[in-house]
Design goal:
The protein is α/β, with parallel strands linked by helices. It folds into three domains: about 80 residues, Winged helix-like DNA-binding domain superfamily/Winged helix DNA-binding domain (Arc Repressor Mutant, subunit A, Orthogonal Bundle); about 90 residues, 3-Layer(aba) Sandwich (D-Maltodextrin-Binding Protein, domain 2); about 100 residues, D-Maltodextrin-Binding Protein, domain 2 (3-Layer(aba) Sandwich). The protein has ten helices and twelve strands. β3, α5 and β4 form a beta-alpha-beta unit. α1 packs across α2 and α1 crosses α4.
Length: about 300
């Protein structure tokens, strides 16, 4: 039994799919299948139940996986601890966020305060962040959706209203608020499944027994406000975007949505058992010891804002 076999097994167990695991590991499927077969032969027990091309982790595989996860986590933590001990700085901290503008100011302030910290930033959706945390690829997520792993710890950083942005001259331009039923036939600019804006939009419409009409769905939340300004539809934008706005860029009108729980909750999430470098520990203290953003909203007149976060 070697380390490569264990990492291959861990990936196949996570996906329960040979081809997906092979793609992640950058190995050929036949080679991966032979490695798993050799591991099972060495252990003297099948780790997966096979039905045609489908595989499922069985009770023996689940039992073995718990030990493999702990062993590989310890090895990875040991490698990081040695690297941090050699460094003259504070070590590395990896942070993932669904949208980068959400944490740009935070990371900039952290770097000024701790210039020796090696900060790595990733843009990931909720599913990717969950995987990255479990795999130890990152230390923290600034998440706009719940991450519910049993070994995850989290603290709420901010809670902000989500507004409806509409193009200038739209029939809602100048309205103070609107209900979901009033905009049931309006085309929406939004993100794909996996992003918080799409999850919120679907939830708000489902609560009224409706399905939103989509004019555009993509993977770059920061482009939504530009497309709304161009008249391609209306959309949900967090209040922080409007608060950071200017008078000359990306003009849109802002409307309150008269709907329950029309807000975004930002949480800092980390794995309870993972090794944290000195840089990571200082980042957690820095992030949780001060207000994350300003919550007060200015009057909803005819202000304009930049790219949404």
């Amino acid at each position: 039994m070697d380390l490569l076999q264990l990492r291959y097994f861990q990936a196949v167990a996570r996906y329960e799919h040979i081809s997906r695991a092979a793609e992640e590991l950058h190995v050929a499927q036949p080679s991966l299948s032979r490695t798993i077969a050799r591991l099972e032969a060495e252990l003297g027990s099948p780790l997966f139940d096979r039905q045609g091309r489908r595989i499922r982790l069985n009770q023996y595989g689940a039992m073995f996986l718990r030990h493999v996860d702990r062993a590989l986590t310890e090895l990875d933590d040991g490698r990081r601890a040695l690297r941090d001990a050699r460094d003259t700085g504070l070590g590395r901290v990896g942070v993932a966020s669904e949208t980068l503008l959400t944490i740009t100011h935070l990371l900039g302030s952290f770097r000024v305060t701790h210039p020796r910290a090696d900060v790595r930033l990733f843009q990931s959706n909720a599913e990717e962040m969950d995987r990255q945390l479990r795999a130890g690829e990152i230390d923290f997520c600034v998440a706009s959706q719940p991450l519910t792993g049993s070994k995850f710890e989290s603290v709420e950083l901010a809670r902000e209203e989500v507004l409806l942005a509409v193009p200038r001259g739209h029939w809602l331009d100048g309205r103070e608020s609107v209900t979901i039923s009033e905009i049931a036939d309006e085309p929406f600019v939004t993100t794909r499944f996996g992003h918080w804006q799409r999850a919120l939009l679907d939830r708000l419409f489902a609560s009224e027994g409706l399905t939103p009409l989509l004019s555009c769905e993509g993977d770059e939340p920061g482009a939504s406000q530009d497309m709304i300004s161009a008249g391609l539809g209306i959309g949900l934008i967090p209040a922080i975007s409007r608060q950071a706005g200017t008078e000359t860029r990306v003009p849109v009108a802002w409307v309150h949505l008269n709907a329950p729980d029309c807000h975004r909750v930002l949480t800092l999430v980390w794995s309870r058992d993972a090794y944290l470098s000195e840089a990571a520990l200082k980042f957690r203290e820095f992030t949780t010891s001060r207000p994350f953003m300003t919550h007060r909203l200015p009057h909803l007149g005819r202000e304009r804002g930049p790219d949404p976060s």
